Predict the 3D structure of the following.
Amino acid sequence: MESATEGISKLGINGDFASSVPNLHKNLSLLSPDQIELAKMLVAMEQSHLFTNWPEPGVDDGEKKAFFDQVTRLNSSYPGGLASYIKTARGLLSDSKTGKNPFDGFTPSVPTGENLSYGDETFMKFEEAGVKEAQNAAFVLVAGGLGERLGYNGIKVNTLCFKTTTGACFLQHYIENVLALQEASCKVTGGQSERDIPFAIMTSDDTHARTMQLLESNKYFGMKPAQIKLLKQEKVACLEDNDARLALDPQNKFRIQTKPHGHGDVHALLYSSGVLEEWQRGGVRWVLFFQDTNGLLFKAIPASLGVSATKGYHVNSLAVPRKAKEAIGGITKLTHTDGRSMVINVEYNQLDPLLRATGNPDGDVNCETGYSPFPGNINQLIMELGPYFEELKKTGGAIKEFVNPKYKDASKTAFKSSTRLECMMQDYPKTLPPSARVGFTVMDAWVAYAPVKNNPEDAAKVPKGNPYHSATSGEMAVYRANSLILRRAGVQVEDPVQQEFNGQEVEVWPRVVWKPKWGLTFADVKKKVAGSSSISQKSTLALKGRNIFIENLSLDGALVVESGDGAEVKVGGSVKNKGWAIEKVDYKDTSVPEEIRIRGFRFQKTEQLEKQYTEPGKFELKA
Ligand code: UTP
């Protein structure tokens, strides 16, 4: 049998290696041939400091092996491996030190896209087209984020939404919407059997186990387990200086410190896991990406998908009107002096200086619509799978990264704490050729965007007139949207009142909620509302069933109707009761469960009319 030293010499490790990294060299016999290759790569990439404190063989050998297990994972989960990560990091750190402008040579202009107005004829045409296409869709939820700004102890997909009224968390709401789309799409296309819409969730070490548990303990909220795929993103190595030396974990000298790489990982994961290929073989045509806490999004999905299909967009970014200088990125066309061009999200703090530097002395200003001509990116993307897959075959899903080191001083020679490369899902178009069809769909924010990102304290500090993006505003936005949709469908819905919760002033509309299968599109809602109905501001209306028809209903209180799929229920007459009053809760009151506290309110369910129709048949609820 050959000795470890003979084996090592066969692998090409010479005397220099022994003198330059003596502590590693002494321990080489502990490593497998693959690990020795990785050790050579680390030394070649000037990472010898990682081994400075390695003790003699026989001491902490298990930890040394675990170190290389970690290196193996870091190497295989990054497109191009760790060497490529270090090389890219060196380039980006050098650009950051010299203050290089990433937009040098680019001129911004307004790209072309579709501006929709909820409920009008064009909108309904796109919704119809989108529902037809949905049977060829797959959904991807990115849910690996830490949610530091929200500061909630659980995972974000298990919070809120409008849980107070229906008991549904975000994940349930999303899954029920996908299932409703699946069914509706099959119906309109006259399909014999429903095609299961695939649903992928990107998790991370911070969210994976709890997401799995949430699904398992709720029977996947009605979806087939095989329909759902969890893809776990890995963290990336931290960097301790401008030379991209990897940082050791301050708690453990045998581990490299790691931090999240950002939601841009989703592209590489879909590709490397084989999921995209499987979807393509299964006939998927559209891949829809969305985020963990937006209770409104699915109201915008059918029409936006219709836009993608009708316009033939390879990439369609969902957007909302944006006030000039508002703190969300603007979708922008960038044209370079060398002829390159792309349609991309430009962060708000970069857009204004870029416009000023390229012949627009006023920078980012509102146009005649009262909004900036650059629509606000909400980071929900629809890709056409064919061109997307072809592009990923070339790039492996690698997304242009950035680095954001916090320097100790103006010399920019040292960092306050380690940094790492990051990437964003919306930067995917940066590598696309100019022939790629990249567009956007703008929809009013009230119908498309109400994320839950900020904790109550930070939300209360948001300047007046800007969105809070808190648990309070996220839930109230759903009641407002549903009330406004019912208004457009002909119901008289009383005006909201202003109220303050956790230091945030919000509009409080009647608490109207429905299951996705009741009103997936505006056409569905219109079909289910007839005659002259009215809802007072203090009311709560929960519609938990498919075929519930509202006809000449006067509601002043709380009404909850639940029906099985075979039941058809006509609801009318006058419902008047004490209803569900809103009670304020202070977020500092720790005797109240966290998910209630962070919203700042709960319901006092004093009196309601609650009816269930589980059997098939026709029913009438005449109060
Ligand atoms: P956010 O901007 O909300 O970031 O991410 P976050 O990390 O969740 O929260 P903060 O910044 O710590 O407060 C937008 C979306 O991207 C996902 C999030 O789960 C959310 O749906 N995300 C973010 C990932 O999936 N992975 C990441 O590494 C980062």
Observations:
- Residues 142-150, 202, 204, 260-263, 291-292, 453 surround uridine 5'-triphosphate (CB under 6 Å).
- The chain has three domains: 4-77, 95-453, 457-622.
